[in-house]
Amino acid sequence: MADNDFTKGSIPRNIMNMAVPMTLAQIINLLYNIVDRIYIGRIPMEGTMALTGLGLTFPILTILSAFANLFGMGGAPLCSIARGRRDQERAGNIMKCSYTLLILTAVVLTVVCFVFMKPVLYAFGASDAIYPYAKDYLKIYLLGTIFVMISLGMNNFINAQGFGKIGMYTVLCGAVTNIILDPILIFVFHMGVQGAATATVVSQGLSAVFALRFLSSPKAILRLNPREFYLNGALAKEITAMGISGFTLAATNGAVQIVCNAQLQQFGGDLYIGVMTILNSVRDILTMPVTGISNGAQPVLGFNYGAGEGKRVKQGIRFMTISCLGYTALAWLLVVLFPEIFIHIFNSGKELMQAAVPALHIYFFGFIFMTLQFAGQATFVALGKAKQATFFSIFRKIIIVVPLALILPHAGDLGVNGVFLSEPISNLVGGIASFTTMIFMIWRKLEKK
């Protein structure tokens, strides 16, 4: 059985060996929601309204993912550091404790979301016209909350053990099923948004089963028995403290979506909530390689940090940053030159296209600065710097984006453009702040060592 020792071999190769399958896994995982949006946007007569209704559910779906990050991304870096220190018992206990926390949280979230579904959706900007679409999708999606928590949360521990390809296969089996089921349930059985939600639940269920089967098999370095639960107060506290960063990053995304939808409803109406749905979808697509590389770097950085290999940690940070900067520069250029191509993926309506093109140019201006946020954030998480990772998650979204989204629409009659402008400003300010802090707090100390 391989031990996947990241202190050996080339750092860039180690990162890319993890990043390539993890990026593919990101792409595949994103297909769950992207494919839903593509098909829903093409439902005859009501595609635009259905797509807008789906957009209203994003904050809730994002918050569910945030809790998966809380315990999955919270436990995985600690697991990597423990493996680097050759403490397999601690690493295994961290994984088992995280699994138990994911299961318990899934049950609570399912109940809470069902009880407060209607008032929450209206608070997020629903109108009477689009509420039925949001409700029909969400009430089915919530039934698979436990599958979402397991597949997203436990996949981090597959990657933390160095099995990036297995992590990719975990989401691949579900994504392929989703792609097949979506058109059948939506168009053949005329289930509409309910069909899309049903396909997603079934697919996430398959991914969850695949993840648990691998982690309980002899192939895994750290073994998990899905029927046994393990809760340790001290470990739970460590996992939660470390996971707060990933949680707040996802949860604050949800908070931003709520504020932006409410502002867009006020200044532009249902049409611009549909535009924001498309912008979020394009952003999800374009950030996948950055997320894949930064996530792929984390177990490598964490393992080497735990083993005391400061020079190799620096090499990893440098490679992660430069490669992501090159990619985001190219992605930004493509958005500027070919905005219609990205919008056509989801909807071809003339009115929506006219509104979305200028919004896309504003929203993605300065896209390259997002790399600085990701690189700084990934380094803090990988090295167990929970407080710094958490602060910069909150700083960019809550301290910068939310106030700007509330203020800018009133400044100089910017209206909806003020909402879209808050994103590039936050990328610039938040990215520079995060990366600069990482250089002073981590890079220089590694240099001294």
Report the principal-axis shape: globular
**Beta-strand content:** under 5%
Low-pLDDT windows of residues: none
- What does the radius of gyration come to? 21 Å
Distance between the termini: 33 Å
Share of helical residues: over 70%
What layout of secondary structure does this protein have?
Layout: H1 11-40, H2 47-84, H3 88-115, H4 117-123, H5 131-141, H6 145-160, H7 164-188, H8 192-215, H9 233-267, H10 270-286, H11 288-306, H12 310-337, H13 339-344, H14 350-363, H15 370-382, H16 386-407, H17 416-448
Helix pairs in contact: 1-7, 1-8, 1-11, 2-3, 2-5, 2-6, 2-9, 2-10, 2-11, 3-6, 4-5, 5-8, 6-7, 6-8, 7-8, 9-10, 9-16, 10-14, 11-12, 11-15, 12-15, 14-17, 15-16, 15-17, 16-17
